[in-house]
Amino acid sequence: MADQIVDSIQNAREYLDSLEIESRLLGAEKPSARFEFLGLSFDTPIMTAALSHIDLVGMAEGARLAGAPVCIGMGDNETLENVLNTGAKVVKIIKPYADRDEIYDRMRYAKQRGAIAVGVDIEHSLKSDSPEDDVVLGRRMKLPSMQELNAFVRDAGLPFFIKGVLSAQDAVRCVKLGCAGAILSHHNGIMRCAVPPVRLLPSVRRAVGDRLLLIADGGIESGYDAFKALALGADAVSVGRPLMPPLKEKGAQGVKEVLETMTRQLEIMLYRTGSRDIRHIDPSVIWEKGRRTGD
Ligand SMILES: Cc1cc2nc3c(=O)[nH]c(=O)nc-3n(C[C@H](O)[C@H](O)[C@H](O)COP(=O)(O)O)c2cc1C
User: For 219-276, where are the E strands, in sequence order?
Assistant: First the structure.
């Protein structure tokens, strides 16, 4: 049997590699990569992915130093508090615990302690290879119903994100639920044979217009990748695995350096395409396999 776990990760990477960028340098002026997000202003739209089981405090501190928002995944309330104490602006992604009270408790805690948004990673509700609820560190997960999601969104008291959206249909549902945003992600291949999140961006953007913030993750390794995602409709990207070795080797400083390098790469691509900022990128600068996207 083919190792399909690699497929979704590899597909996402190969798709990014298949995209090319044309130059529109004449008349271009120095651009800005600043990112306005949930009423706050950041130096970059390249944020950390919702990671866990790593030094989340070091990751958050590195992102804060780079002027980036932070997404964090699983972890106890004490860890969240330590992460927030770094001064980072944090989107807390909560597991889809079958015990819904736990979701409410964690949302409440995140709000009290100053997170800027919360969300649930619905893609982790199910096992990868059988139609059963997943179990994470001994805790049972369960896909929330639309009614339950609606109640989470209403109760959160913070902008709410659904992570694991991989279709225009689900994105439209997020809008109907009153979500602030969606994170397009297959969570490292939890969803087998997944369409690469960046490939979905144009259709998702067409479906939701500006009614939903879109963050894409999965294989973003450079500012060039980030540019491609932003050009195709993302408001921001999140980066997970590429931050892990630098975090281990150099702590917060390592994360800061990677995010700043990626931001410089994004800025040069904005400049070379005549895009004055991240909200003014003409998607037609992106070519796919020798054809302009949209042709
Ligand atoms: C070590 C590790 C832990 C993760 N933990 C979580 C988590 O707790 N919650 C979540 O929503 N996603 C989690 N993810 C998935 C990431 O948020 C992200 O979707 C994925 O890593 C794809 O991005 P990347 O290709 O940049 O790594 C985790 C990923 C890794 C590698």
Answer: 236-239
Give residue 198's region: left, alpha or beta (phi > 0; psi -120 to 50).
Answer: alpha
User: Which single residue is written with the structure tokens 């291949």?
Assistant: 189
Percent of the chain surpassing pLDDT 70: 97
Residue 65: beta bridge partners?
A: none
Per-residue pLDDT, 6: 65
For residue 247, the 8-state DSSP code is H
CA distance 106 to 135: 18
Q: Which two tokens stand for residue 126?
A: 């199910």
> What six digits make up the tokens of 39?
């009423």
CA distance 168 to 118: 21
- The residues annotated with a catalytic role in the active site are 187
For the chain, helix, strand, coil in percent to 5 are 45, 20, 35
Q: Sign of the CA dihedral 46, 50, 56, 57?
A: positive
Distances (CA, A) of 121 to 52, 138, 174, 184, 190: 13, 17, 13, 10, 11
> With a threshold of 0.70, does the pTM exceed it?
yes
* Domains of the chain and CATH, by start: 4-16+30-264 (3.20.20.70)
- Contact between residue 22 and residue 269 where contact means Cβ atoms under 8 Å apart: no
Cα separation, 179 vs 174, in Å, equals 5
- Ligand 1 touching residue 218 (CB < 6 A): yes
Give SS3 for 40. Answer: strand
Cα–Cα dist 121/96, whole Å: 6
pLDDT in tens, 233-274: 999 999 999 999 999 999 999 999 999 999 999 999 999 999
- Cβ of residue 10 lying under 6 Å from some atom of ligand 1: no
Instruction: Choose the residue to mutate in 52, 79, 94, 183 for probing ligand 1, maximizing ligand atoms within 8 Å of C-beta.
Output: 52
Helices (H) and strands (E) in the chain, counts: 10, 15
